[in-house]
Each structure stands twice: as C-alpha cells, then as structure tokens.
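Model: Ready when you are.
Researcher: Fold this.
Model:
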Amino acid sequence: MSTTSTRRHPHSLLVVASHNPSLVQLLNTRITREMVDHVARHAAKCVCMHPAYASPAPGVHSLSHFIIQIVNTTNISTATLLSCLIYFDRIRAKMNGLQHATSSAMHRIFLATIIVTAKYLNDSAPKNSHWATFVESTHRWKVAEINTMERELLRLLDFDMRFSEEEACLHFAPFMT
C-alpha cells in the first residue's frame, strides 16, 4: 500500500506531495454555492449584454441556477467547475466582450466551457447528446448546436486547453485556505 507522499493525485501524473497542499485540499471538497456564483460572475464577464437583454427573459433561469442544474445532473468535480475560470479569462481576452449579446449567450459560453473542460480533465466525460439531455429543462439546444458551441470555443482557445498548477492556484485562490 502506498503512502500519501508517494501516491499519485487522481488529477495529475505527479505524487500528491509535489502539489500545493491548499490546492489538493480544495480539489477534495464539494462544489459550494459560493463557487457556483463566482464561476457565474466570471462567465458573465465574457459578454456585454444588450440593454434589452440585461435581465433574463421570462422563463430563462439565471446563470447560477443553470450552473447548479448542471452540477446536480452531471456530478462534475470541483476541479472541472473551477478550471472554467482559467478558460473564461482566455475567452475574455480574445473576445473583448461579446457585444450586444442575448441572455442565452452566457449560458452558451458556460455550457461550451464546461463541456470542453470536462473532456480535457477527465478520462470519461459525458457525450454531447448527454449534455443536451442535462440542459433540456431550461434550453432546447439540439446536439448539433452543442457540437457547434464546443467547436467554436475550441477555435477561440486555439485548441490549447493546457494550464499550469500556478495558473490554477491563481484562479482558485478565493477558495484555497
């Protein structure tokens, strides 16, 4: 049986002891409402809402509610949710705020980001047909639309999903002890 100092971390090829202890501790916690709200605020910064769409249209759930729905139906990890923060910064730098976006733009950006993050970080991730089922109670996106969202996001990120532990610690800092 291996000891903690020689055991590999499940999100890494390195032993647990080689990682920032606060990061390891954070990745072993459950997703909180504070994390969801933080991620929602950062996703929202990727778009500049058209004044007519500044508040969600009737029947459209808030972004935080949408994220909670996804967290509850997909069982995504803390690492997957918080890693979206890294990509939101990259998206924001490339897009300079999507001008005159509709209220669903934030939901689309979040969904595409969580999909590519889950696929990048996990050996086994839901297929896009599953994601369509996960969000069908709030959005009627077809699998083809979700495929397009994913491709467009990957192009926007130049298909570069890599990030360092230091970058993760910087973005996850509000939740690290």
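Researcher: Now this one.
Model:
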Amino acid sequence: MAREDAVRCLRCLLYALNLLFWLMSACVLGVAAWLRDSLNTVLTLTAHTRLEEAAVLTYSPAVHPVIVAVCCFLIIVAMVGYCGTLKCNLLLLSWYFGSLLVIFCVELASGVWTYDQPAVQRSDMISLKSRMPNYGLQRYQWLTHTWNTFQTEQFKCCGVIYFTDWLEMTEMEWPPDSCCSNQYPGCARHAHYRDLSDLHQEGCGPKIYSFIRGTKQLQVLRFLGVSIGVAQILAMALTLTLLWALYYSRKSTEPPSDDSTTLAGTHGPSADAPKPCCTRAAPKGSANPPNCTSTTTAAAAATPNQHQFEMECLSKHDI
C-alpha cells in the first residue's frame, strides 16, 4: 500500500513538471522571436563594426536555431513523458529520461558559451555616425527604413549621441520625421524651429550599448533557461525513482517460475514407487483388516522355494 501511494505521488509530480516544461518552452520561443526582430535591426545598423560582433556574441545563443530546436524538442519530450507516466510504460519513461539528459547537456553547453561578456565600450558608438550620410539615398532605402524603424518603434531615440548628429553628418537642415515623439509630415521641421521638446532627446548610441550589454528580455531568457535546467534535474530524479518502483512492483507480482514446480514434483511421491500389496480382502465377519506385512513376508519367503523347484526340474531334464 505504501508503494502504491509513493508511485501515485511520483506520477502527480511528473505531470506537474511536464506541464511546466510546456509553458516555459513556449515562453522561451516567444521571447526569442521578440528579440530576433530587434536584433536584426541592430545588426543592420552596426554592420562591419565591433558593435555587430558584440551583438552576435551576446544574442546568437539566445536566438540560435539550435536553441529553438531544443525548445521544440522539449515540448515533444514532455508529451512522451506525460504518456509514459500515464500508462506506467517503462520503455517510454526510459526514453524520456535519456532525452532529458541530452537536452540538459545542450543547455549547459549553451550557458557556458554565453558566459563571457562582449568587449564593447561607449566610444564604439561613434562608429554609427558613418552610417548616417547614406540616409535618404535611393540605393540605401533599406538603411533609411532601418533608421526610421529604430528611432520610432523600438528604441525611441534620435541620432547617435544627440539629434544634432543628423545636421552634422548629413546635408539635412533638420532631423528626420522619425525623431518626433508625435509623428506627422513635417513634424521635425516644426520642432526644429519652434519646440525641440517634440523630438526624442536621447541618442540611439546609448540605447544600442544597453541592448548589447543585455536587455530585460535576455535576462528573462537566462532565467527561463536556469529554471528549465533545475526542473529537468528534478524530473530525471523522479523518473528514475518511478522506474525503480514500477520495476520492483511488477517483479513482485510475477507468478512463480516452472523450475519450482518441477523441483516439487521431483521430491514428491513418485508414480513408479511400489504400491502396498494389500489386495486380499478381509474375511467376512472379521473386524481385522488384512495384514499387509504378513502377506508381503509370505511372498518373500515363497520366492526362494520357487527358485529351488525350478532348478530341480532343470537338472532332471538334463539327465
């Protein structure tokens, strides 16, 4: 009874852990997709600079296809573990344990890979100014779109250090309209001549520096990675315990083997053993049963006399 209660408790814990695996894997995929959009914009602006290398070093493990594949595989493994726990299948539970061990090793290697911080300084932000003179040119429409997206939707900034960078590095007389907090056609010109507070006051350089050093989304991904690793260790320990309990419970309920039955038949009464020769019926009116011992003794005594008679007949025949 105690073993059945322990097995029931282990199964409930594994159900909860598999549900937790589903939720955390879905969260990792969602946050990784969110980061990937911002990362593509940053990589476009920082192409061929030290900032690009630092951004790749920081975020590539988080949005790498291997990590995405591991999360998808973890969802499948959690489903297999749920089915194995539900049916108490030793094969499925063994496969579940091995898969969790492989995923844990991959996550551990990824954590060691992302441990080093990128070597980037604020002075490297100045290199972004070299991307500004191409703004608005016909053959650099992709760069123009990237600057506008970066300054409005994602980081809400203007220029590299300050909005005056657009006036220094380009031939424009006022910043782009993407620098306005409330955008409308000609808003930057209106703000430049009348109210500068309508422009984003912070430059994009410090925002990119903070992004490369690590955002809240990246911290969330790291927290989820550590949580999944701890949950996997607990799930592997519970799976091993459940496998042990199921194996010994099934072994104890197996019927006895044929060897014991054969051994009992060998040492038991044999069919070839001599039966007692109590075949003579008791006389009528006699209360005493037939004496098997006297009958057996008489038969044994008659046996030598019969042999002696046969020998005499043989000697007469020879004469």
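Researcher: Key takeaway?
Model: The two ends are 90 Å apart (CA to CA).
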